[in-house]
What we know:
By secondary structure, the chain is of the alpha+beta class. Helix content is 36%, strand content 19%. The protein has a single domain, classed as Ribosomal Protein S5, domain 2, CATH 3.30.230. It has 3 helices and 4 strands; from the N terminus they run αβββαβα. A hairpin with a 3-residue loop joins strand 1 and strand 2. It starts with 9 loop residues before the first helix and ends in a 10-residue tail after the last helix.
Amino acid sequence: MEKQFTLRKNEDFKRVYKKSKHYYNRDFTVLVKNNGVNRPRIGFSISKKVGKAHQRNKLKRRLRSIVYNNYRYINNVDIIIIPKKHTTDFTYDKLKSSLGHVLNKAFKEKKINYVK
């Protein structure tokens, strides 16, 4: 994913954590905040509780792939995706459907089907 589409600075993460809407399902927590930029910016927050480094990296690579294939459907928001501990055992398709479910809940107000 290109750098312009990622949240990288700690201040950006803090701003989203403080002033965002939270959306949940049993597998993910998603924080969404308008950003005033004409592109989405996406960050991942994966705790050490999720697993060892190779498990977290594999999960992050899969999530980046899912988001990269579908980011063109949204604009003007900062998103932080926080997976739960048991998501390291999921297949790619299960991750895609679960993340799609919570993101569709988040963007229901905008009438966007995020993951197709």
